[in-house]
Design goal:
globular; about 35% helix
């Protein structure tokens, strides 16, 4: 039987010790905003395996969030708006 990994274990992965090739490449992942938010989270985890540690192309990515941080969706939306406007 496969051991179930907790969210805290996923968040605490050390990006420096992970083989980059073992990380899921999330560069082609898309969000479907027509799906309820809870199901979107399930889809992200199913596709990316670890939403805190993945790669985009050849770059390993480790996400960390302070307790008082705004929702990831808001931060990511703001990032995309800035990128689109050339900032």
């Amino acid at each position: 039987m496969k051991k179930r990994i907790s969210i805290s274990e996923l968040a605490n992965v050390d990006i420096e010790s992970v083989n980059k090739e073992d990380l899921v490449d999330a560069s082609s992942f898309t969000f479907d905003n027509t799906v309820p938010q809870e199901q979107r989270a399930e889809r992200v985890i199913a596709a990316v395996k670890n939403p805190y540690c993945f790669r985009v192309g050849d770059v390993g990515v480790k996400l960390e969030f302070p307790e008082d941080a705004p929702p990831l969706q808001d931060v990511f939306s703001d990032f995309l708006k800035r990128k689109k406007s050339g900032l």
